[in-house]
Amino acid sequence: MRAAFLTFLVIAPVAQAGSVETFDGVKTVGAITLDFGQIIVTPNGGAAVKIDPAEVLSAQFADSVPAESFAPGVLLRNGTRLTGPFTTLTEPVVKFDRYKLSLPGGEIAWVIYQPISPAVAASAPGGKVGALLAGGDFFEGTIKAADDKSAKVLNPIFGPRTLVGASKDLLALILRDARRSTALFEVRTKDGALFGVEVLPMDKTGVNLRHPLYDNVKIEPKDILEIRAGPGRFQPLTALKPARVDPLPGRKLEQCFAVDKSLGDVPLDSLGAAHGKGFESAVGVAATWEVPAGFNVLNVLVAVPPGVPPANRLIFAVYADGRPITRSAPLSSSDKPTPLRAPLGPVRSISLRVEAGFPTTATGSGLWLDPVLIRK
Q1: Which of 32, 221, 294, 312 has the CA that lies 20 to 30 A from 187?
Q2: SS3 state at 352
Q3: What's the CATH code of the domain at 340?
Q4: DSSP output for 35-72
Q5: 307 lies in a domain?
Q6: What range does the domain containing 136 cover?
């Protein structure tokens, strides 16, 4: 009897140069691979570090990641972006061969014909149907026909107009408003797609997307540009409008509180903010924000700017619903930016305040760099 032998070929995952930044502000640069439920980064000459995706702010699978843009394709109502060709929107079901997907036409909010920046996309009028044109113009009307190459829009005054994407005059076709994404995770691909998911199953061969609209779509590591925390569990504090900021007596608000820049109009990325976000507030100024439901941790880097006299020590205090919950050690302008993490629990609001440490009459200001709310 002849014995049967099976030979198994084990293919090692291909590492890609990149970096992983976690919620605590630690960034590790090295070779990136995926494993069962984990992202692995191996620094040059160092040991591999396994990181739970729940702790990842951004895992970038490239040395440099291009700025966010809306690539040609479609924007779904839930904020997901798909790229590549698709069938006509006049059919009840729209097919995307690239992903082997068939989606109800009602799930498509925008058709994108030219690469556009998030700022240009945000300039589109809400609640209207029509075409976003080059130069910021909007041609409002009923959509009579559309596919991935052109659209026909009927305006009640100017009549029908056929717009062609190849002419570069047509930026996007807007069929309905898209909701702000609430996904816990986002996967950004090298061809410009962006998928939002609530869970992130992964192994050495890539990421398996789990979502009612695009279940079982597989993205291989070579096609991944970035895996990042989604808006459902990561919210930059500076993206929220403060509920209240009280200026110091006799001073204007802009003299003692500045968002995404210093009081001296200096970019915050030159002062220690990795993403250029944050604010500077004078000693004694409390800024208060309402906390979105479910967010229960604040992460921030705190620092005393160079202009404060070195002898002054300042304290960074966090209050939740008026109660003190976290305070930094007294810091001076000679100290490096210091991580401050505040577990919030179920609170309605938080207030951030810079206070005098030593002497008790110390004046100056403090920097709150890259402040983010996290859902844990």
Answers
A1: 294
A2: strand
A3: 2.60.120.1060
A4: ETTEEEEE-TTS--EEE-GGGEEEEESSSS-PPP-B-S
A5: yes
A6: 73-174
Residues 250 and 357 in one domain: yes
Residue 189 contacts residue 227 (beta carbons within 8 Å) = no
Q: Is residue 331 part of a domain?
A: yes
Classify residue 349: in a domain, yes or no.
yes
Centroid of chain to Cα 114: 22
What gap in Å lies between CA 337 and CA 340, rounded to an integer? Answer: 10
- Domain for residue 328, yes or no? yes
Type and span of the H or E element at 174:
strand 170-174
User: Are 28 and 15 in the same domain?
Assistant: yes
Residue 19 and residue 168 in one domain: no
Number of domain units in the chain: 3
Looking at the structure, do residues 220 and 283 belong to the same domain, yes or no? no
Contacts of 97 (CB under 8 A, 6+ apart): 84, 85, 86
The pTM of this model reads: 0.81
Cα–Cα dist 116/172, whole Å:
9
Residues 244 and 347 grouped into a single domain: yes
3-state secondary structure 142-196: EEEEECCCEEEEEECCCEEEEEEHHHCCEEEEECCCCCCCCCCEEEEECCCCEEE
Confirm if 61 and 72 have CB atoms less than 8 A apart. Answer: no
Indicate whether 215 and 309 sit together in one domain.
Answer: no
DSSP letter, residue 376: -
* Angstrom distances, CA of residue 365 to CA of 298, 337, 350: 20, 14, 19
Mean pLDDT by 10 residues, the chain (376 residues): 39 76 86 93 91 92 88 96 93 92 94 92 90 91 93 92 90 93 94 94 92 91 94 92 93 94 93 91 96 93 94 97 96 95 93 96 96 91
